[in-house]
Hints:
Blueprint lengths: L3 E12 L2 E5 L4 E2 L5 E2 L4 E5 L4 E6 L3 E5 L18 H9 L24 E5 L13 E6 L16 E10 L2
Antiparallel strand pairs: 1-8, 1-10, 2-5, 3-4, 6-7, 6-9
Amino acid sequence: AVDIDTILISSLxxxxxxxxxxxxxxxxxxxxxxxxxxxxxxxxxxxxxxxGIAGTSNFVYENDGTGTNTVLGNTITSFGQASYxxxxxxINPADLPNAPTEVIGSVQTVAPAVEVLxxxxxxxxxxxxxxxxxxxxxxLDPDTYDSILTMPLNIKMSFEGTPIA
Length: 165
């Protein structure tokens, strides 16, 4: 057996069923195209979710909204659900009290693998450590329509260890 002292996340995949959602208001879709009343938008819980790990270092990941598992970024846009919300309520979400100026977390890719945990020196013969795993729907992500809250979300993660030098 090889002793390891660092844990890295080497892959992360968010998937979920994609279903059509019918809009009851005109708005600018997540991709920037206009959506008319009665227009459909394909939505998936995987495109509005984020996964975060808080350990030795912090890691946040999200799909880009097209299912290709790349990063969208931290900038809040006025497209997608924010545009829909504004059309329905007359309120720009960025103008709400305590509205953030950017989405939560420093979003990053998984390739190459990212260190998330340095294990403690063993007192019992085993290296140990712990991290917290968070999964949430980013409220200001353009793909976070209310209809995704009842849809399935699948998360597949792989971890690897770094041998002690």
